[in-house]
Model the fold of this input.
Amino acid sequence: MLTVCPYFHVHQPYRVKRYRVFDIGNDNQYFNDNSASDLNNSRIINKVADKSYRPTNKILKELLETYPDFRFALSFSGTVLDQFEAYAPDVLESFQALVATGRVEVLADTYYHSLAFFYSLPEFERQVAMHARRIKELFSVTPRVFRNTELSYRNDLAKWCEDNG
Done:
């Protein structure tokens, strides 16, 4: 029998609000656009949660309950976890419930969904460590498999993964 392990990547960037030269010195809330625009992070995360995360997690939970051999992996950016915590805690709780089954593996990643490995090894290592701490804090697991942003790869990245467990 063929064994397949699906993996789902969960990421939402922070949207930066429109910032004018006149706002300098008056407003430093770069990510807090409370308007009805497509730059309102709370509005966007809940819209995406309604269309994707909430129904998908419901289906994944049902699959885990129905099929004892069903397993999958999840990859989260730190930015999406921060936004779930701030704007959609029920979604974070639904992911935590999936992971708590013991049949969902959480992958290591960069915190900001960045390509830091290709530009700054110290920044890359800082983000990977930051991500691992956040995953441990929220899911009580330590990632064992690394997934780089956009599945980008180089041999020296594989060597880094091997050297760093």
In short: The chain is about 45% helix and 5% strand.
